[in-house]
Amino acid sequence: MPTLEIRALSAAYGPVRSLRGIDLDVPPGTITAVLGGNGAGKTTLLRAVSRTLGFHGGTATGTVRFDRLPLERLRPDRIVAAGIVQVPEGRQVFARMTVADNLRAGALGAPRGRRAAAQALGRVHELFPVLARRAHQSAGLLSGGEQQMLAMGRALMADPRLLLLDEPSLGLAPLMAQRIADTVREINASGTSVLLVEQNASIALRLAATAYVLEVGEVTLHGPADELAASDEVRRRYLGVVDEAAAADADRAADTPVRTLGRWSA
Ligand SMILES: Nc1ncnc2c1ncn2[C@@H]1O[C@H](COP(=O)(O)OP(=O)(O)OP(=O)(O)O)[C@@H](O)[C@H]1O
Ligand SMILES: [Mg+2]
């Protein structure tokens, strides 16, 4: 029985259809990745789970269950209380508020008393020591990577059982993206399931157990992440790997001067 079970999910913003017939599972305790380019529907998928689609003028049909609990009729605050928290695309930290107040805001969604909040804060500071050091600074002064840490820390303050991560590596230098990825692994190791959407397929496929490829609102491939990472389709389209044999075939098929030179030099 998966933690998150999505069936026949379709979504639209007015006349714009963004998702069509999505079936997707997040097995308990795992990291599940969704890969896809710009406009594929990744953010829409997460909004359909967190029930925030309406805030963006969207609607959804189909079923979404979390540990058997149907989510379709719940308000976004009930989703958080049920244990699902979304880290939005582009971090969206409260720039004028301090780092500490951003974290405090994260705990509001799931009020559980002071002791639990203090424990959650301790855990967030352990994962991201920089958030303790910069506690009294405005969040807007943090670097992009630090803001991503704050956005994730804020989500963790609600002690989620399922974390929805929207392109955490976006716009980060490779080293910072790797640090964020390491933290995602750590968060998962301590028992939180993760649904991760990413354009950075190499990071996502290394983290995830299972992955889905989303193209123009539809799932076109899914399976174990290592199998997807080995598939020609994914390597070519999402990992930027040039398939040597296919490239050579294309070279032979097209008789252009450049290709002739290539053959000559070989
Ligand atoms: N608020 C909105 N109103 C209207 N159309 C929208 C809205 N948000 C997204 N869309 C459209 O829905 C489709 C899917 O968008 P979505 O943001 O889910 O894609 P994405 O995979 O997250 O892309 P990106 O990688 O660029 O973030 C796109 O065609 C987009 O233009
Ligand atoms: Mg998006």
UniProtKB/TrEMBL annotation:
Keywords in alphabetical order: Amino-acid transport, ATP-binding, Nucleotide-binding, Transport
Short name of one Pfam family: ABC_tran
InterPro entries per record: AAA+_ATPase, ABC_transporter-like_ATP-bd, ABC_transporter-like_CS, BCAA_Transport_ATP-bd_LivF, P-loop_NTPase
Chain segments annotated as coiled-coil in the UniProt record: none
Ranges for domain ABC transporter: 4-241
Transmembrane segments: none
Source organism of the structure: Streptomyces drozdowiczii
SMART domains (UniProt xref): AAA
GO MF term set: ATP binding
Name of the protein in its database record: ABC transporter ATP-binding protein
Lineage of the species this protein comes from: Bacteria, Bacillati, Actinomycetota, Actinomycetes, Kitasatosporales
Family recorded in the similarity comment: Belongs to the ABC transporter superfamily.
